[in-house]
Amino acid sequence: MLFFPAIIPIIVVPILWQFLFHPYGLVNTAVVQPLGFEPINWLTSTGAVIPAFIISTSWRIVPLCIVIFLAGLQTIPEELYEAAKVDGASMLHQFRYVTIPRLKPTILVVVVFAMTLTAKNLVFMLVMTNGGPDNASRTLSLFIYEMGFRFSRFGYASAGAIVLLVLIIILTAISVRIFRTDD
Fold first, then answer.
1. Looking at the domain assignment, is residue 88 inside a domain?
2. What domain count does the chain have?
């Protein structure tokens, strides 16, 4: 069940979240109103549309990241934890000095993977709001799509795609620098 969001067809996910983010949808009735707040128009409010996209995109990406982390955790030798216990390390110290350093390559893969999937969130934008309200949810991928396919301005679409590529390369380079290992 945990992996279920990752296997749902990409077009179904934003439609599902449209119903969940409706003012009388599950998010408002199960989360917002029990906390004592008024229902939020998630997809028509300029202040709430970006958090709605973050939540819906994360719901789709997190299961894939969990599987990658589980694979990374299985590569850590049990002997390292046993040695840390013998040295008197607490669970927190084991996590900090054994788990995190050994998971740095896995964290790098997950960060780059999540960045590239998030950059390609065109389907979410098109289906849920089409860039609205007041262009609050307009992204670079939506700009590329509109320029290329809606307005046939292929030069602008190509320029936007190059900017997106450069941004992803820069963010990937920063991530590699942060999570590099000194093995």
1. yes
2. 1
